[in-house]
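Translate structure to sequence.
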């Protein structure tokens, strides 16, 4: 059995002019949401075996906050340039290329690829995974390369936990 957690990067800032999209930082709300959601997840699940992030600043910063919260060695955080894509094709390739020694993984990436992926590979329709939203899917497979349709078992969105 393989368990996958997909996290859409936290809320990013558009206030900086002249920087490339890949370099956009998190907003204060995004940083706060990332800490809140990382702590929520840490109290809900065991630490995933591997953390993988898009190379975009906003995704990487989100991944670092989660990694620090889970006490995951940040030197082991895998950074994937191909995850800086807005289609699910590279997300699928990244997941299917995971080492089978890992039974669980958490991936920090972007919309629309995340929405497409969770609706194609999970069994619960999700209209929109918001920023810093988390979706967990279990696959009844021994090999990541064989994952097809799984069971969506976790959906956690920041709006459901703010001020609670």
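Result:
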């Amino acid at each position: 059995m393989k368990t996958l957690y997909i996290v859409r990067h936290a809320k990013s800032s558009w206030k900086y002019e002249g920087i490339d999209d890949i370099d956009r930082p998190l907003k204060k709300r995004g940083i706060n949401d990332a800490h809140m959601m990382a702590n929520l997840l840490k109290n809900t699940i065991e630490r995933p075996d591997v953390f993988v992030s898009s190379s975009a600043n906003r995704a990487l910063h989100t991944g670092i906050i989660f990694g620090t919260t889970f006490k995951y060695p940040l030197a082991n955080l895998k950074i994937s340039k191909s995850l800086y894509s807005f289609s699910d094709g590279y997300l699928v390739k990244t997941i299917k290329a995971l080492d089978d020694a890992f039974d669980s993984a958490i991936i920090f990436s972007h919309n629309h690829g995340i929405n497409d992926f969770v609706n194609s590979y999970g069994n619960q329709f999700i209209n929109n995974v918001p920023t810093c939203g988390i979706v967990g899917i279990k696959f009844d497979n021994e090999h990541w390369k064989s994952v097809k349709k799984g069971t969506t078992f976790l959906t956690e969105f920041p709006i459901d936990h703010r001020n609670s």
